[in-house]
Hints:
The protein is mainly alpha-helical. Helix content is 66%, strand content 0%.
Amino acid sequence: MQSDQLNYIPILMQFILAVGFVVGTIFVSGKLGPKRSSEIKDKNFECGIESVGNARIPFSVKYFLVAILFVLFDVEVIFLYPWAVNFRELGMEGMVKMVIFMMLLLVGFFYIIKKKALEWE
């Protein structure tokens, strides 16, 4: 093997160890866990409050839309940190690229404001 390929052996070993741990935990919990079940044990329990009604109530699509938009803009803000750390080394080219990135971000932000995606009813 070449030395570049040898650098990936620790990653492969860690992956095999992680998969082995997950499979082993699932196997052991299925074989060694308690087998007795009763009506009281099988009952839903949350915070000491008895369950009332169906737990499968539908969520509003607005909820998921706001969550996705939050994650989207949060991830885009993460890209600002490496740029800010390397601001001087990137020079004018990095500044121009970041201005383009921020303009695209603002266009998307104004679009969702125009579509009233963030307004809760």
